[in-house]
Amino acid sequence: QVQLVQSGGGVVQPGGSLRLSCAASGIMFSSSGMGWYRQAPGKQRELVATITSRGTTNFVDSVKDRFTISRDNAKSTVYLQMNSLKPEDTGVYYCHLVIGRDYWGQGTQVTVSS
Fold first, then answer.
1. Which residue intervals of 1-114 are DSSP H helices?
2. DSSP helix/strand/coil, 62
C-alpha cells in the first residue's frame, strides 16, 4: 500500500523560510520520481517542483532560485525547502507520485503573511 505522509508547513512572514517533508512507504522510493504541487485559494492545483530518481530537478518559473527540492533515499523522503517566501506562495502543498496512478500526500497548509 502506497502512502505519502507530509510534515512541515505553517505560517511565516514574507521573506521567511519553511521546509516541507514527504515520507513515502510501500514503494521502491529510490526508483521513483517525486513532485510537489500547490493549490492556492480559488485556483487550480499547480506543479511546483519535481525530482527524478537520479536527482534531476525542475521548478515552475515563479519559485526558481527560491525553492529547492531534494531527496533522501535512505529515509524514503522528499523535501521542499522554500526560501524568500512571498504571499503568493500561500496555499496547500501536496507531494505527488505516479506509479500506474496518481498518489497524493495529505496536504500541508503554507501561509505567508505579515
1. none
2. helix
